[in-house]
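TA notes, week 10

Several of you asked for a full example with nothing omitted. So below is the full record: structure tokens for the whole chain, then the designed sequence directly under it. When grading your own attempts, check the secondary structure regions first.
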């Protein structure tokens, strides 16, 4: 049941993410070996022309000033 509770938390945050970023679609890919979650706003990853690393290990990827994706480093560690 703990997994359902954690999933419920994630699902509740998605509307805020969609609203804040003005995106219609979100595509997720998790690399278990590297513990990295890739969040893309296109059905295929877009090559960014700029990025920034935040203090909480998120890489925000931009193309022409618009956010095209987010990479969450140490993704599993974020929930522990």
């Amino acid at each position: 049941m703990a997994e359902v509770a954690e999933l419920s938390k994630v699902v509740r945050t998605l509307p805020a993410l969609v609203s804040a970023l003005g995106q219609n679609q979100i595509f997720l890919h998790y690399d278990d070996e590297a513990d990295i979650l890739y969040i893309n706003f296109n059905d295929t990853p877009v090559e960014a022309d700029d990025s920034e690393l935040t203090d909480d290990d998120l890489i925000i990827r931009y193309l022409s000033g618009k956010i095209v994706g987010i990479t969450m480093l140490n993704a599993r560690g974020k929930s522990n």
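The chain has two helices and five strands. Use that as a sanity check on your answer.
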